[in-house]
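Data card: per-record layout.
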Amino acid sequence: MTSDVPAHCTTEVLAESLPALPAEASGDERARDAWHPHLKRLYEYWKAIHPPRGLPGRQEFDPSAVPDLLPNLWIMDVQREPFRLRCRLVGTSIISSAPGGLTGKWLDDVRPEIRDISGYFDRHRAVVETKIPSWRRGPSRFELDAAYASLENLFLPLARDGQQVDMILAATIYYRHNGTEF
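The structure for this 182-residue chain is written out next.
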């Protein structure tokens, strides 16, 4: 796939400005061969909308630029103290994993059990504090429908002012027990 990534968003330039993290915990492009193609595409799009300085914000994100990814996307507003996430935009694939809906609701109100999962928000906080994307594939940290065996997701920081992360753009792919995706 060819992309029109601005010069200031190339792998080399971004690598110089991002601290080294384990590949699974970061947007480290060396691990991208393992990523689902939708997550790779979202990451490339996020890099392409990066302003010359700082992070992209919601104002740069255009959902119509990635229509095929919308079912798997969600945008979460970040509240720093106490740390909470409110679901602003939630794709249909995500909604199907959370009966009762998520849009406009605090994640820990919809899924109160996550309050009791030690470290549940650590990845989210790391994205907010370090401004570095985070990718993960594995079992869900909380109970999902029995049909869902695992998931893969990508968290990307968004900052209206280019500096302070105020939203997380995320995408999640759900997998069945036989490894095929939903």
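Known properties of this structure: DSSP finds five helices and five strands in the chain. Confidence is low (pLDDT under 50) at residues 1-26.

See the next section for split statistics.
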